[in-house]
Write a sequence for this structure.
């Protein structure tokens, strides 16, 4: 599961924050998958599918997840909204009729009462051809298949596609549990922090004479690489690619470095928690990726803590953020 807040992820959360989208709601696509159009249109190719992105944000408690419905998708044509039907367990035909049958208890012979009645008013079992008295028989309600003649006490539940009429046993149909997603209270604050940190980096570079673009793409080789921030300084030809993450991990630093190297730029990573993982720090140091932390007062500082080494400073920080959260709630 991807943990990174990519430019695409920030874009879709911004739309949720400003009320353009009330909730991210699912639709079943033509090929029978599930998609979130309000998420899909913001994502870049490298972000993965909308469902995984939302699940990851729900896992991090940035978004809540609310059950909507269960959808059954036809494996044949991909349409959803299959309807309930019953079928013959033997041949799968839907043409089964519930009717009363007489059973000759001794031999198990089963037939409509009419077939038991002999010409002289006596009862003869059509199966074993012995004369039977009424008390040797039992009346049963059975589902009789009009296609193959099989009968059974119960019918078998099945799902039929409204589009192509294919019939499937329920376990063969594709079951989707559909959720909608919206902001957790903490999520709104989290987004504000990410955007403020990006803005702080943009302003710091602008102060140093850079022309800065946030939420943009870089690359002059025909490949567009989405980045949180790109700055260019004309006079010396200095270029900077910036990224903002709550707690940068190795993947985040590596990706930033790759993009910066591809456009011959320096790279700066902002940690909004003031923490980065040990592996991320190692990579940053060996590849000259600058790391700064975003402070509660809105400034950027060179100090940060490394997750696995310093337990105490990060837990103090967690206490600070959770008390801030309580005040905001
Ligand atoms: Zn179908
Ligand atoms: Zn019989
Ligand atoms: Zn049948």
């Amino acid at each position: 599961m991807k943990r990174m807040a990519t430019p695409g992820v920030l874009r879709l959360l911004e739309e949720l924050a400003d009320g353009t989208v009330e909730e991210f709601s699912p639709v079943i696509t033509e090929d029978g998958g599930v998609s979130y159009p309000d998420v899909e249109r913001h994502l870049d190719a490298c972000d993965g599918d909308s469902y995984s992105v939302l699940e990851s944000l729900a896992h991090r408690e940035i978004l809540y997840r609310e059950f909507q419905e269960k959808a059954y998708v036809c494996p044949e044509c991909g349409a959803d909204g299959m309807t309930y039907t019953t079928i013959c367990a033997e041949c799968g035909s839907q043409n089964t009729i519930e009717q009363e049958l007489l059973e000759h208890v001794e031999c198990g012979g089963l037939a409509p009462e009419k077939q038991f009645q002999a010409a002289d008013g006596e009862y003869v079992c059509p199966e074993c051809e012995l004369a039977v008295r009424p008390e040797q028989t039992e009346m049963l309600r059975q589902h009789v298949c009009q296609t193959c003649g099989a009968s059974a006490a119960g019918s078998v539940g099945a799902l039929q596609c409204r589009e192509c009429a294919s019939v499937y046993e329920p376990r063969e149909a594709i079951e989707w549990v559909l959720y909608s997603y919206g902001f957790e209270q903490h999520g709104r604050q989290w987004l504000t922090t990410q955007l403020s940190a990006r803005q702080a980096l943009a302003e710091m570079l602008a102060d140093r004479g850079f022309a800065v673009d946030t939420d943009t793409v870089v690359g002059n080789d025909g490949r567009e690489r989405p980045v949180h921030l790109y700055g260019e300084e004309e006079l010396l030809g200095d270029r900077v690619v910036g990224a903002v993450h709550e707690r940068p991990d190795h993947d985040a630093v590596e990706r930033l470095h790759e993009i910066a190297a591809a456009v011959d730029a320096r790279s700066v990573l902002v940690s909004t928690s003031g923490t980065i993982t040990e592996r991320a720090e190692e990579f940053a140091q060996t590849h000259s990726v600058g790391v700064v932390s975003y402070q509660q007062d809105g400034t950027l500082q060179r100090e940060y803590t490394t997750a696995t080494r310093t337990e105490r400073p990060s837990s103090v920080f967690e206490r600070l953020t959770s008390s801030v959260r309580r005040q905001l709630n």
User: Anything to note?
Assistant: The mean pLDDT is 89. The chain is about 25% helix and 30% strand. The pocket of zinc ion (ligand 3) is lined by residues 88, 90-91, 93, 145, 147-148, 150 (CB under 6 Å).
